[in-house]
Specification:
Layout: H1 2-7, E1 14-20, E2 23-29, H2 37-44, E3 50-55, H3 62-74, E4 78-83, H4 92-103, E5 106-109, E6 111-114, E7 122-125, E8 130-133, E9 142-144, H5 161-176, H6 182-186, E10 190-195, H7 204-214, E11 221-223, E12 226-228, E13 236-244, E14 253-261, E15 263-265, E16 268-272, E17 277-281, E18 284-288, E19 291-294, E20 297-299, E21 303-307, E22 317-319, E23 337-343, H8 349-361, E24 366-370, E25 376-380, H9 383-397, E26 401-408, E27 423-425
Helix pairs in contact: 2-3, 8-9
The protein binds guanosine-5'-triphosphate and magnesium ion (MG).
């Protein structure tokens, strides 16, 4: 999105697929900023495991704490990548202690940095029993370790103070740290920790190889009719995100589907559980790197995009099963900030309504109307949501909006007879 480029932060989650080593990986990249946490939490419902990327200088940020506590509660395996080792940051021991204390999760360092910042030499790879050297290509990149965990070959690194220090820290980890346990990784109790520098791609492949070894395959998911097996003959999935105008040239609207069971075949007919109506899935797309391609087949665990002409809502289940079950409801947050919103130019009412409706359906913002006056009030969890709303209304719907702050209030459901100047929500399932 244009606003993301301008501000240098993500304002919405994005999806990307890639193939690696006989695996197909679906990445759902979520915004880190807490103002967009509702989007992030919804997206989290569509994943099988999470990768937590930590800036080694900042340590664990507020948003990360909340987010990964949800992962912990849901038993989602968490893989940790401690990034920016090319910069001076907190010490690795400090970072591990923070992870364990703040997130209440056990950690197992799969590798360990040797120095950092200007002195960053590479990683001591406990899992692969080797040292991987930073900024070294060719044969020297990986140096094997012997059974004692020391460099097998003569190397100048052996004489360095950093090497000595690393060996001491590794000894400490072995004696006082957690045991490696594949089972505890799978149930989300133990997070394997990796160090690297994503900007220089250092440590990324080592991470990916281990991730693919230990990340779980798609699991059974709960529905209103019991568990749904991912290899069931019945196709099913749920919509966790809707986004319009992703491609400004086409002005289309895409519903993102997480496939939970069976096989998707383009052109198949499914039922939308909410309405009971059949839908033909003829226009579908997948997101490979920066490209979009028509997708003809997809399986459980895949994320595909369905071109949407207004059929879908966030949280919708679709299935070929006759029993029109639904997957778990997606989280919805209570808004805490409110703005009265109008179109600057009264002649633009049509675009104004179209834009608001679309952005509300995406869950980018919440909408309330006052009962008597039919005024539009926008509700948000964070201030930045309003700014994104304003920007998108201007850029995607060509409408300048006027927003007036209403202060912070909490919305409450009100009984009909008590309705006066109370507000009512346009959304269906508040929590
Ligand atoms: N020095 C250094 N900088 C890095 C590294 N990885 C990322 N960065 C920089 O960190 C900044 C933030 O990177 P992003 O990938 O946008 O971070 P993010 O956490 O995804 O941010 P949001 O999506 O906005 O939440 C960018 O300026 C990157 O160039 C690294 O390994 N080393
Ligand atoms: Mg990002």
């Amino acid at each position: 999105m244009e606003i993301e480029k301008q501000r240098g932060i993500s304002v919405t989650s994005s999806v990307m697929q890639f193939d690696y080593d006989d695996f197909r990986v679906n990445i759902l990249d979520t915004p880190g900023h807490q103002d967009f946490s509702e989007d992030t939490y919804r997206t989290l419902m569509a994943v099988d495991s999470a990768v937590m990327i930590i800036d080694s200088a900042k340590g664990i940020e507020d948003q990360t704490v909340k987010l990964f506590k949800v992962c912990r509660m849901r038993g989602i395996p968490i893989f940790t990548f401690i990034n920016k080792m090319d910069r001076q940051g907190k010490t690795p021991l400090e970072l591990l202690a923070e992870l364990e204390e703040v997130l209440g999760i056990e950690t197992y360092p799969m590798n360990w940095p040797i120095g950092m910042g200007k002195d960053f030499v590479g990683i001591y790879d406990r899992f692969n029993n080797r040292i991987e050297q930073f900024k070294t290509e060719g044969e020297e990149r990986f140096l094997p370790l012997n059974d004692e965990g020391e460099l097998e070959v003569d190397h100048k690194l052996k004489d360095s103070q950093l090497y000595e220090q690393t060996l001491e820290e590794i000894m400490l980890l072995t004696e006082a740290g957690n045991q490696f346990s594949e089972e505890n990784i799978a149930n989300g109790k133990l997070s394997p920790v990796f160090f690297g520098s994503a900007l220089t791609t250092f440590g990324v492949q080592t991470f990916l190889d281990a991730y693919l070894k230990f990340a779980p395959a798609p699991q059974a998911r709960m529905t209103t009719s019991g568990e749904m097996d991912p290899v069931s003959n019945d196709f099913s999935g749920f919509i966790f995100k809707i986004q319009a105008n992703m491609n400004p040239k086409h002005r289309d609207r895409i519903a993102f589907l997480r496939i939970c069971s069976g096989k998707f075949e383009r052109g198949m007919s499914v039922n939308l559980s909410r309405t009971g109506k059949p839908i033909n899935l003829s226009s579908s797309t997948q997101f490979m790197a920066d490209d979009r391609n028509t997708v003809n087949e997809a399986v459980s665990g895949d994320i595909i995009g369905l071109y949407d002409t207004g059929n879908y809502q966030i949280g919708d289940t679709i299935t070929t099963s006759k029993d029109m079950f639904q997957f778990e409801r997606l989280p919805q947050f209570t808004p805490e900030l409110f703005m009265r919103v109008t179109a600057k130019n009264v002649m633009k009412q049509k675009h104004f309504h179209k834009g608001i409706n679309q952005l509300v359906q995406e869950g980018a913002i919440q909408l309330f109307k006052t009962v008597r006056m039919e005024e539009y009030l926008l509700g948000a969890v964070g201030q930045l949501q309003f700014e994104v709303f304003e920007h998108r209304m201007r850029n995607e719907y060509n409408v300048e909006v006027v927003m007036e702050r209403m202060g912070s209030k909490i919305t409450r459901w009100a009984e009909d007879e008590k309705l006066d100047e109370n507000l009512h929500s346009s959304r269906k399932h508040p929590c």
